[in-house]
Amino acid sequence: MTTALVRRPGLARLRLSRNRTGRPWLYLLCLGFLAVVVLLALLAPWLSPHDPNAVDLGNALAGPSASHPLGVDGSGRDTASRLITGARTSLLGPLGVVVFSTVVGVVVGVTAGWRGGWLDSLLSRTTELVFAFPGLLLAILIVSIYGEGLIAPVVALGVAYLPYVSRLTRSLVLAERKRPYVEAYRVQGHSGLQICLRHVLPNIAPVVLAQSTINFGYALIDLAGLSFLGLGVPALTPDWGRMVFDGESAIQSGYPLSAILPCAAIVLTVVAFNVVGERWADQVARRDR
Amino acid sequence: MTTTPAKTPEFTLDVRGLRLQLPGAARPVLAGVDLTVGARETVALVGESGSGKSLTSRSVLRLLPPGATTEGTVAVQGEDVLTMDAKQLRRLRTHTAAMIFQDPRAAINPLRRVGDFLTESLRLNAGTPDADATERAVRMLEAVGLTDRVLRQYPGQLSGGMLQRVMIAAALMGDPALILADEPTTALDVTTQAEVVGLLDDLRERFGTGLLFVTHDLGLAAAISDRVYVMYAGRIAETGPAEALFEQPRHPYTAALLRSTPRLDAPAGRLAAIQGQPPSLREELTGCLFAARCPFATQVCTEDLPPHLPVPDEPSRLVACHHSDRLADQLAESALHD
Prior knowledge:
Chain A is mostly helical. Chain A is built from 10 helices and no strands. Chain B is α/β, with parallel strands linked by helices. In chain B, α4 packs parallel to α6, α5 packs across α6 (about 160-175) and α6 packs parallel to α7 (about 190-205). In chain B, the strands form 2 sheets. In chain B, strands 6-7-8-3-9-10-12-11 form an 8-stranded mixed sheet, with helices on both faces. A 4-stranded antiparallel sheet of chain B has the order 2-1-4-5, with helices on one face. The chains are: A mainly alpha, B alpha/beta. The interface of A and B includes residues 189 and 198 of A.
């Protein structure tokens, strides 16, 4: 497999589980962490100790206590409850981005790679145009047109992430369709579409899915960034990026906990997604050798 | 044949005047190929790399390089492949003609089980129920000397010889009238080669298929085939019954090919080689394409394209050479000296 996945430098360096003979403890740890985060998000209404939006101004910026184990924020809202409930939007947003960019990107990439010719040129040049435009800027533009809400930034980032997926898919399809088995199926009387859907697509799927897992982490950062800028979810929705934004003033007052905790949640989740995605990508890459 | 063309074709495969031009090439890659394969007949198509032998066999399934333009007819069971619509073409590929590729490991999707590979064509294109398709797959696997255990295995778990047997079984799945084998033994080691060739011959007899065997191995061609076509630079140089053709070549190219085949019983020394290179597709040539490398070449060879003429006293043989009698004389002479 000559096609390299698109990985941003920096995070990709963080691979403590390099040692292949030893147990992949970092991978397992990250997988476990992700499982916990997903479970928390799914069971948020039952697990959060308080109403995440219950305001208690008299208790604002209080430190950890028995009833508020992670303290409260500047409006007296329970940080633990907001973190747990916020995991929902914080994961749902990137999920939307990844699903959108993967589905559309695969369709575009497969069409371009399989059909070739002018359609390939058209699709490839169009998607490369998106490359030239920073994803976050595109998202800000779309949000400023359509206003606050989860849908607009998700679609915007989905469009921004689409070229990564479509380019990868296209190159994979190009490599795959040259393999002799495609021709062998063709002379057995299979149509091009059949071969493409039944053989080429399943064969390239693991690589694309590994890329999507890595993309998930980046989408989480970007969406949190948008929320921090006040362009993401509506003001009252609990969301990690939004919490960092809300906690900003608290830091200036000397109470950093309510901002640092969501930051930590974002960083840890992104790192965990990257480690897991990297490992899957490595496993897929090794499969062919 | 003119009275009932589609019903009772004389030949399983009947290629007439096939010309194939690629974009950017100065002369056609195939320059008027005539070739027939009868029912239950094994025909070998030999030639060096780039002579167009693979293209000829591929054009039978209309597996043409992009941008290729064709002239002539390629009739399989009396139906012209080159003018078929997509539906007819798929029927042809599913049921009438099948191809066995050079490298079986590359020709099977490595991520699918063998059973899937064998039955897919019938299940999807012919609408055969799963159970029937699997039953046929088991029968075909048994015919090629494998057990039904293979059905659940992945291509990576089988040896090259076994995989080529799977390929042959796959070719037989649609009960074809014609099998095209494009150097099916090149990727195999010698002992497996013999097995696969024997198997092909056996199955051709049993299932009554015609077999077009494309190879550059003259020994193999002589051993397996009833008739042989020798191809050079997109043209048939010589054709005839295998035994007669190898015994007494009438085309200098065939003679040179035979001389350059390594033999164990020959005296030690340098291998005989054919001087020069096959003509490039970029140059336009008049006359005989072999003239530049031919020891018999004269003025006429570079000017006139030699027509395919029957060899005197041997009506089943055709040769395209101006100096075929001179070659015959020389061979007879050297036979006297030996």
